[in-house]
Design goal:
The chain is an alpha+beta fold. Helix content is about 60%, strand content about 10%. Among the domains are: about 5-100, no CATH class; about 250-440, no CATH class; about 445-510.
């Protein structure tokens, strides 16, 4: 499926951008130099007739993206949160991709609900509205349950959306392979792994049962968090293509004028969005990874309502600690600490110069501190940070892609509400609290206790393992050279010592209760 036939798909992508006028808009947004504009025009106009027409009523870029399909729409949603990168005009055009795409007919949605749940819509709901929001994957209907009268949101997958994503991702895989083949230097960025990661994320978003499970887990993790709400799923009214959950009443996060008119404290809301994301990522290691304005509302009392859990991120405890130390280093402007953490975690090859890397990080961080938010060009900072990663041979960490992407999106959301927000000052209390609880003496004692418990569980297996392995190791020692014999003996002795320690740990674990 990932063969050369995808060349046609990629050509048609470029042709669609040319035909709809989106190519010129993109080049203007990134302020492309004249020679790049000329090359794009020369290469694009002969194939323009091959591109999709799209909806002529839409602005050029949204016209092209919606014509190309759901995977392109998902990428456009990310860009819509970054007016500091793509410009306010383009960001405004792309904002419609969040929840204002053309819906599919209500009758079609009703048939999907009935097929999925095995009952007619009239039996399940006393009310079932026209679509109130439509995005790349699904659309939402406002409804009322027939059994208890509760108001709910019914999310229904778009027809044939799975096939569209498969086609797009197939082309992305081919493009990534071609990029690696043509430019070996790009392999450190692992484009094929990045696409595979994106594919796994999309697979989860196309099964609404997994989204219901994510919503349930996220609600449990955050039930004691102040200033936020999570709509709970209704399991017996959900299936693979249908998800029913509590109705979330509030103003859309993207309606800044409406929030201001309602008397909301915009700086407080902006800070809360950023701090909630950091709390969930650092404390729980399980976070909402699609926090654009279309998935956020503000309740009348100022609570942030988070919904649409199709894309969730998960990071292990070690990675969370590394991430927190990097953030704390930037917050305290301790660039050598940031550099050391990168080297210790293996993010930068060990043969590179740590001091030089620290100076490069200083050039990234210093423009942020002491500057007015409106003076900071995030596009320039991202461009320079990319240069740094290239110069020091840093490979893309696929386990951090969602975390990094969501941080960019959340920062964009916060800046759209409060352009003067200082992200470092807002992040500081959350990161400091995490480090205090997870990197101090108390955390070390907790880690030791866990290690003791693990050793205690495996202690009963060690005698049998040693009896089975020791004779074999001794036979190998007899036929090995002297140096190898010494190493084998050292290993055996180490295992014996480990067994003694494990047994001691078992007693200690039992004593600790």
């Amino acid at each position: 499926m990932r063969g050369p036939h995808n060349i046609w798909r990629l050509i048609r992508t470029g042709a669609t951008f040319e035909r709809t006028g989106a190519m010129r808009a993109v080049l203007d947004a990134v302020n492309a130099p004249a020679r790049v504009r000329l090359a794009a025009h020369v290469l694009g106009w002969p194939f323009a007739w091959l591109g999709y027409k799209g909806d002529a009523n839409l602005p050029p870029i949204t016209r092209a993206i919606t014509a190309l399909g759901p995977a392109y729409i998902k990428f456009g949603q990310i860009l819509s949160t970054r007016p500091d990168v793509v410009g306010p005009e383009l960001a405004e055009q792309l904002s419609m991709l969040q929840d204002r795409l053309p819906p599919f007919p209500q009758e079609q949605a009703r048939r999907i609900v009935e097929d999925a749940l095995g009952k007619s819509v009239e039996v399940l709901f006393t009310e079932f509205s026209e679509p109130v929001a439509a995005a790349s994957i699904a659309q939402v209907h406002r409804a009322r349950r027939a059994d208890n009268g509760r108001e709910v949101a019914v999310k229904v997958l778009r027809p044939s959306v799975e096939a569209g994503f498969r086609r797009d991702i197939d082309a992305f895989h081919f493009a990534a392979s071609m990029i690696e083949f043509i430019s070996p230097a790009t392999r450190r960025l692992r484009p094929r792994d990045v696409v595979s990661h994106f594919e796994s994320v999309v697979d989860g978003e196309l099964d609404l049962r997994r989204e219901a499970a994510a919503a349930s887990e996220f609600a449990e993790n955050t039930r004691d968090d102040d200033g936020m709400r999570v709509p709970h799923p209704h399991w017996h009214l959900s299936a693979r293509r249908v998800l029913t959950s509590d109705w979330a009443e509030g103003l859309p996060m993207g309606d800044v004028a409406g929030l201001k008119a309602a008397g909301q404290d915009l700086p407080a809301v902006a800070s809360r969005v950023l701090q909630l994301f950091l709390q969930h990522a650092l404390r729980d290691g399980f976070f909402h990874a699609d926090m654009h304005q279309g998935n956020l509302k503000v309740a009348a009392n100022g609570d942030v309502i988070i919904y649409d859990f199709g894309i969730m991120g998960e990071i292990d405890e070690y990675t969370r600690r590394v991430y927190a130390e990097i953030l704390m280093g930037f917050i305290r402007r301790d660039y050598m600490r940031v550099a050391r953490v990168h080297f210790e975690a293996g993010y930068v090859p060990a043969d590179r110069d740590m001091a030089e890397f620290a100076r490069a990080l200083r050039a990234v961080g210093e423009p942020i501190f002491g500057a007015d938010a409106s003076q900071i060009s995030m596009a320039n900072l991202l461009a320079y940070l990319f240069e740094v990663t290239e110069r020091f041979g840093m490979r893309t960490r696929t386990e951090l892609i969602l975390l990094q992407r969501t941080m960019v999106v959340v920062e964009g959301v916060s800046r759209s509400i409060d352009p003067q927000i200082n992200i470092w000052e807002v992040a500081r209390p959350v990161v400091e609290s995490y480090i205090r609880d997870n990197l101090g003496p108390k955390a070390a004692a907790r880690d030791l206790g866990r290690s003791v418990q693990v050793l205690a569980r495996f202690a009963p297996l060690l005698p049998e393992f040693l009896e089975r392995r020791m004779p074999q190791m001794l036979r190998e020692q007899e036929s090995a050279s002297d140096s190898r014999r010494e190493r084998r003996f050292g290993l055996a002795a180490g295992m014996a010592i480990g067994a003694v320690l494990a047994l001691g740990s078992a007693f200690l674990g039992a004593w600790l209760g």
